[in-house]
Amino acid sequence: MTSSSTPREHPELRGRLRDALGADAVTTDPDVLAAHGRDEAAFGSAGTAAALVRARGTDDVRRVLAVAHELGAPVVPQGARTGLSGGANAVDGCVLLSLERMDAIVRVDPDEQTAVVQPGVVNSALSAAAAEHGLFYPPDPSSWEVSTIGGNVATNAGGLCCVKYGVTADFVRGLEVVLPGGEVLRTGRRTAKGVAGYDLTRLVCGSEGTLGVVTEVTVGLVPAPEAALTAVATFPSVADAAKAVAGVMSTRLRPSLLELMDGPTIAAVNDHRDMGLPAEAGAMLLVQSDRGERAASDIAEFAGVFADHGALDVIEAESAAESRTLLQARRMVHVALERLGTNLVDDVCVPRSRMAELVEGVAALGAEHGLVTTCSGHAGDGNMHPTVIFDRDDPEQVRHAELVFGAIMELGLSLGGTITGEHGVGLLKRRWLAEEVGPLGARLHAGIKRVFDPRGILNPGKVVE
Amino acid sequence: MTSSSTPREHPELRGRLRDALGADAVTTDPDVLAAHGRDEAAFGSAGTAAALVRARGTDDVRRVLAVAHELGAPVVPQGARTGLSGGANAVDGCVLLSLERMDAIVRVDPDEQTAVVQPGVVNSALSAAAAEHGLFYPPDPSSWEVSTIGGNVATNAGGLCCVKYGVTADFVRGLEVVLPGGEVLRTGRRTAKGVAGYDLTRLVCGSEGTLGVVTEVTVGLVPAPEAALTAVATFPSVADAAKAVAGVMSTRLRPSLLELMDGPTIAAVNDHRDMGLPAEAGAMLLVQSDRGERAASDIAEFAGVFADHGALDVIEAESAAESRTLLQARRMVHVALERLGTNLVDDVCVPRSRMAELVEGVAALGAEHGLVTTCSGHAGDGNMHPTVIFDRDDPEQVRHAELVFGAIMELGLSLGGTITGEHGVGLLKRRWLAEEVGPLGARLHAGIKRVFDPRGILNPGKVVE
């Protein structure tokens, strides 16, 4: 059976997986493997996988990790592959371990305000299940209609609501995690509080599949927010808008969304569909309050702050429908930018007081390298998504785009920021992670990795080099 | 100089510490050492320390950890020693490393809504410094007027506000941590968000001094809450009160405090000072809303829930002064119970739906062992502080108190809970931690401990056995 195999065909690994899981569960078709070889990162290497396993339950994951651990074969866990850092990219000879079929909402407990879900549950499905009980699962990455909770946990995903509600890990109470060798770890708690021992739940959240494979997630839910209203304002410059953001955040109110689009982003949206955004605006802010009967007075206060900081124009929605219209420009950013070329999306988070310097610095880097750059993102958190637009068929542009991508992270670090606010490190940001955490931090990362994964089979080459 | 020393006098360790820090910084007076040998846990062993160092800054901590690491001498970090689990108790031959003198509020940044403090800053001092800027540092352990931020971080302390705001770690953004050998680690971020690498900040929070010594803490602050109002209700039984708690938590409103006192607690408070609490009540609930102009309607809604669940009596405060009066009974619990004997305070957190079973089970255990027990605590989180009252001079009572203490944790675990909601594991709960996290969890704890502290000098024998 294996006599005609070449090393590239990984006969032992494939055979052992088929023995353990059944032949149907193991895909080795090269086209299928290639189609599953990458997430949505605009560049970064991807290797050639040996097999794809679509796990049907924790037992399948255990079997894969037992075989892989024994053979020393790499395992790359995958959700919907909507990540932007290459964290789900194949490595040579790996098992791609897809969790997408483990998509059961195990239960929603309205009394405890918790839900238990498998990792393949799509974020929006969990949100909908919570809403049926008048409850709310806040984390809302832009990919929320396609990305999975497992992927959200792996990257500790954020979103628009973070400014008020926090990131994914803030809602994760406990995990079931399969470790190399196939042992099953249960971390955390089912209760509202719990401080027993080291916080292994938080350690696994955001570890991007390098410490274990998450097979079940217990999340906390909160009461559903009340009706939301939105206001929008344009400003002559990002510096003005940044001051207005500081003004909003220094009120006693906490907005449920506070987004910024810079001039080039506004221009791209205008080019895509004329929404009547003022061409002369250097920046636009969108703000929301979800406090029901107090939303109108909240956004009136925010609008006042905008006016005090030199807004060119302020529009306050008076209804949910108007609010949706106002948010359309923000929702259109992704599509509008994709029309311009390949997008390399960065994810730098800086102290709010340094945000204008970040946005201005990104524009200067784009100009220096002859590339279009834009900045938009979660201004209330200082978390920008600088985006470099390039032509992936032009090697010079690719080279410059990579240089700008790195220079943006250096700039973020120099402003007291972090290289990633919500997307993770993956493949693309390892070098800068080492810079951010320093040699001692890197040594601790490597040590912790060895405790969980002594043979280094889990998503090797991601996060830690 | 060392020729007449016995081994108990640790001449090498003391000499090296004096050389590194100056003779003034190192205390070896046996009475002083004995006075610093324990925290507030009602029992648990305490060893004899070799020296006490009151660190004046990070450099002192580095020097202590360099010397101790080289000599393999244990180091027990201490704050205000208000812990309840023996986590700060001396071990034989250790250096007691007090952080109390490192009490500078380095800065409060109102724009970023952050503060940077040294570990010896008392919780109430940070709260006051934040309040000067209209900001709020929510974590409020009962000890908040004496306990330090370093100790709060070490135990991941909670408090009354957790039901709305969360525990200490939810507000910690970054840490400076000195590791054995004296290397200085900086974890986390200064920004609102950040997911770069493994969450070392959370790993150190709640690790009770077993992974490193925290020398600086960056916390996030939130806008100051608005005026608060309180309501109080009594119920025939804990079961009724527990249902009312579930009712309150299933409204769309989130109270800023939701506390329970059981019948024996009410009786103890009544005995201490007659506050007119109804002797026939089986339980009392206190609830608060801190939403200013909406507080009155919030507590009216809570009061309605109480009435619907069979409250004997409901009182809604109409002013801040009335609210304070209503909370007096809760504030008096500690003093009232201390009058009855030595208090062994447990800290079990269970799903809210199991809270009545916990309280009833604690009463049954007390009856079985012939000891008075009470339950009070943070009902909104399911976090109770069952308290065993005993006479520490009666060996039989001590023995039974220890048995009840353990049985309460077993009960909590059997109800799907955790052995500690906010006090930590320390010395007293190690055995049950092993049970809660299981053999694999324990192995990971030991592995992580070795990564940070390969010679095992940091607070040995605490948390992990």
Task: Produce a short descriptive summary.
Chains A, B: Its EC number is 1.1.3.15. The structure is a homodimer of 465-residue chains. Chain A is of the alpha+beta class and 465 residues long.
Biggest sheet features of chain A: 7 strands, antiparallel
Output the CATH topology of one domain in chain A.
Uridine Diphospho-n-acetylenolpyruvylglucosamine Reductase, domain 3
Name the assembly state: homodimer
SSE class of chain A: alpha+beta
Count of DSSP strands of chain A: 21
Q: Taking all residues together, what is the mean pLDDT of chain A?
A: 95
What would you call the shape of chain A? globular
Most residues in contact: chain pair: A-B, 85 and 85 residues
The top-level CATH class of one domain in chain A is: Alpha Beta
What is the name of the CATH architecture of one domain in chain A? 2-Layer Sandwich
The number of helical runs of chain A is 15
Strand content of chain A: 15-25%
Q: Which strand order does the major sheet of chain A show? A: 15-12-14-13-19-20-17
The separation of the N and C termini of chain A measures 37 Å
Unreliable runs of chain A, pLDDT <50, ≥5 residues? 1-5
**Radius of gyration from the alpha-carbon trace of chain A, in angstroms:** 23 Å
The percent range for helix content of chain A is 25-40%
